[in-house]
Amino acid sequence: MTAVDASVEGPAPTHRSVAEVEAGLRHERVIAVLRGLGRSLLHLLITLVIVVVAWQAVVSHSGLSTYVAKGPKDVWNFLFVTEPDARFTAAENRAELFPLLWQTLRDAALGFVVGMVIASVLAMAFTVSKAVEAGVMPLALLLRSVPLVVLAPVIMLITGRGTQMSVAVIGTIVVLFPALASIMFGLSRASPQSLDLVHVYGGGNLTALRKVAVPGALPSFFAAARVSVPGAVTGALLAEWLSTGKGIGGSIDKFRAAAQFDKLWASVALITIATLLIYNVVQAIETSLLARMGMGDDTAIR
Questions:
Q1: Cβ–Cβ contacts within 10 Å for residue 49, how many?
Q2: Which CATH class is domain 66-279?
Q3: Which of 104, 107, 164, 263 has the greatest number of CB atoms lying within 10 Å of its CB?
């Protein structure tokens, strides 16, 4: 080999293989998932601390009788510590309240699922056809503007008092409009260039929706899901109070009337904590899924 040939060849350039690049991307996405989950857990702890501190401050400085107002320590003792002079043990108290909590969570899940499904279908239909939007949107606005307490007698007249259908309808009405607005916003932000590309290759509106708009709207879909969690719980409590008489919503008024304030405060605390936990679970799922798809804030696609 001549000196000229050696100088031309020189050291071989180094290139990262496809497998190495993919491994790096997977590592980055795992780090993004773990970082997001850590943030969700931190936010949950901070929220719980704020709720407990604010709760104790209100009880301590509101001037209410300790017989009526129960603080975090009182609720903890009621649920997990059996006092020597207590009429019921902590286990008996949990055995009474936890089934009420599960019933309310089941009712909330029913309204959440039905409301999110209907909101997603309507948002996609509105995106594909403006005529559908013009015909259905006024009805959605009407349901949102009329108080549910006014609509409840009509709903129960149609669906029957105390039925799961009445729970589903009331929960759906609470969840529907905020979720619909959020999902429609996400679908409307689809890239015009990507939509044009689909149309250039002969794709119609449905193809553009499926290939471009829906994947790009996933962050808005999860935002709608997070907002709908407390809405679904509120709808379940309202349905239980107005219709079924079951769960925490149907029992709080009974506890108040019977002056069972320990049970009343414990019920409110349980459903509040459960709502915060579910909200953060949805947020953790969102963080994990979007990071795996390369759509998270902490994930860089190179």
A1: 10
A2: mainly alpha
A3: 107
- Calpha distance 119→96 (Å, rounded): 35
Contact 235, 175 (CB under 8 A): yes
d(CA 246, CA 248): 7
Q: How many residues does the chain have?
A: 302
* Cβ atoms of 289 and 282 closer than 8 Å: no
Measured CA to CA, the distance from residue 92 to residue 109 in angstroms comes to 26
Q: How far, in Å, CA of 69 to CA of 58, rounded?
A: 9
- At 230-263, the pLDDT tens digits run 999 999 999 999 888 899 999 998 998 888 999 9
Residues 6 or more apart whose CB falls under 8 angstroms from that of 28 comprise 299, 300
CA distance 174 to 6: 76
Per-residue tokens: 210: 């499926």
**Full-prediction pTM beyond 0.85?**
no
Q: Which amino acid is at 94?
A: R
Q: What is the DSSP letter of 211?
A: I
List b or e across 58-91, with b for residues whose CB sees 16 or more CB atoms inside 10 angstroms: ebeeeeeeeeebbbeebbebbbeeeeeeeeeebe
Amino acid at residue number 294: G
Separation of alpha carbons 226 and 124, rounded Å? 19
With 0-12 / 13-18 / 19 or more C-beta atoms within 10 angstroms meaning exposed / middle / buried, residue 191 is exposed
Residue 20: count other Cβ atoms within 10 Å of its Cβ. Answer: 10
249 vs 270: CA distance, rounded Å:
12
**Under 8 Å between Cβ of 184 and 224:** no
What pLDDT score does 151 carry? 85
